[in-house]
Amino acid sequence: MNKTDKLLTIGQFAALHGINKKTLMWYDETGLFKPAAINPENGYRYYTYHQSPVLETILLLRELDVSIDEIQEFMKDRSAEKMKVLLEEKTAQLDLQIMHLQAVRKTLSGHTRNMETLLTMDLPEIRIVEKEEALLVTVDIDEHTTFEKEVELITAETARYRLGRLHDASYGSMIPVTSLQSGRFDHYTKLFIEIPFLKQKKGLHIQPKGTYIRAFHRGTWDGIPKRYEEILAFARSRGLTPSGYSYEKGINEAVIDRIEDYIVQIEIPVF
């Protein structure tokens, strides 16, 4: 007898494919995958080695979350063409899942950095830091934009970029440096969304790579103008020229209950 025709017990066949015997029993009961033979005296199931490719196909499809009904339909009339179409469809879905998981990982890394900053920060300190380029989705606002309208604008952009949840991205606001220099510390002109793994730059705001002043403010927004005055004085004392925009974002929303404890990170590019 050829070894590929040798009968294997259900335990041997299950072990060969790294699955539980109950899985094979269930596949038999549903009609998805039948044993090659059944002992009429004791009902024991037996399989042959040449059934392995079929089982592996089923296991692959199950791993790709293809339903039992879909697999049964495919197995009734399987072909290379149908297999190719099915695998291409599942590959596309898998690529989306990978992108989402990568985005989630980047978001978690960002939250972790924020927590590390909270644990090590010197709140009054103003520092010089180096930053990498970041791509930001922005929406324009002015002093007449209501909070409800801001929520509407942000919601539209998160839907446009297919964000599953708000916390899949970082959010903040922007003030032109020219406004800060003229004392208009509440002249917010844009809201920004930093979305992980954006592939295109067209239509996006580029937060430039380079040297930044970084400072923090804790408490309500009433105290931010004074903090900006301190930041601008710091820049003058070191011969630094702010440019572009100031980028503000909260870093501790997840771990506070009171607005008085809210911490805003402020970053301004300088040269």
Describe this structure in words.
With 271 residues, this protein is an alpha+beta fold. It is 42% helix and 21% strand. The chain contains eight helices and eleven strands. The protein has helices at residues 10-17, 21-30, 52-63, 68-76, 80-120, 147-160, 177-181, 224-237; strands at residues 7-9, 37-38, 45-48, 127-131, 134-140, 170-176, 190-194, 205-207, 210-218, 245-250, 263-269. The strands form two sheets. It has an eight-stranded antiparallel sheet with strand order 4-9-11-10-6-7-5-8. A three-stranded antiparallel sheet has the order 1-3-2. β2 (37-38) and β3 form a beta hairpin. The longest helix is centred in the middle third of the chain and has 41 residues, at 80-120. The protein starts with 6 loop residues before the first strand and ends with a strand.
Task: Provide a compact summary of the structure.
The chain has 271 residues and is of the alpha+beta class. It is built from eight helices and eleven strands.
Largest sheet: 8 strands, antiparallel
Compute the number of helices. Answer: 8
Uncertain runs are: none
Order of helices and strands: EHHEEHHHEEHEHEEEHEE
- Shape descriptor reads elongated
Neighbour order of strands in the largest sheet: 4-9-11-10-6-7-5-8
Q: By helix and strand content, what is the structural category?
A: alpha+beta
Question: Which percent range describes the beta-strand content?
Answer: 15-25%
Helix content: 40-55%
Count all strands and give the number: 11
How far from one another are the termini? 82 Å
What's the overall average pLDDT, rounded? Answer: 89
- Cα-atom radius of gyration: 29 Å
